[in-house]
């Protein structure tokens, strides 16, 4: 496989792809970005591990390490992959991923269903306000349908019967964690918890607003931060690779 891209953006739910596009278009101006999507079938068990192994099969023959990135559940898959196959990952960029990676909007949805005697539709309407801010009624209905579909498509381990925690730790490669100060799901406290596992080269950045899908509303501001991080470590990795090669010639 030739070197076709520098970055892989992971998406774990096809219905949410639309919210990644503005940022990916911006990032593609500076870096060679590929999008990898995981499509979970209705008869398939919800498992991050399946997505991780499929991604490894895709990258197994790729000759170079890559910048790996993702939002939400896509970020949780990227994190798991980076821990399991560190030699494949040059850097890791996580958007709206808490230090406890299972602390996503699905978990908040199921907690509300368990604690309150309200319908699925009522919880979805509340989730729209939390994730996107106040929206007009017709937009709220459309976004409720999107979130309802995401509950079916995403490999989230949560359900009405149980909530699951995932391992908390850092990674060996440089990592950037991005969030929004107005995100009630992955809030500032959940982001700051990452500091317990940060290395000197790791970076934490918060968008002033934008709620959970801040990268959709502010693609340029988010993109500038990510590109700066990638370019620094991309150039650093290329220099190290060149020095290593020259040492053996």
From TrEMBL:
Name the record gives this protein: AB hydrolase-1 domain-containing protein
Species this protein is from: Nostoc minutum NIES-26
Coiled-coil segments: none
Organism superkingdom: Bacteria
One Pfam family recorded for the sequence: Abhydrolase_6
Domain AB hydrolase-1: 52-222
SUPFAM superfamilies given in the database record: alpha/beta-Hydrolases
Xref: Gene3D superfamilies: alpha/beta hydrolase
GO cellular component terms given for this protein: membrane
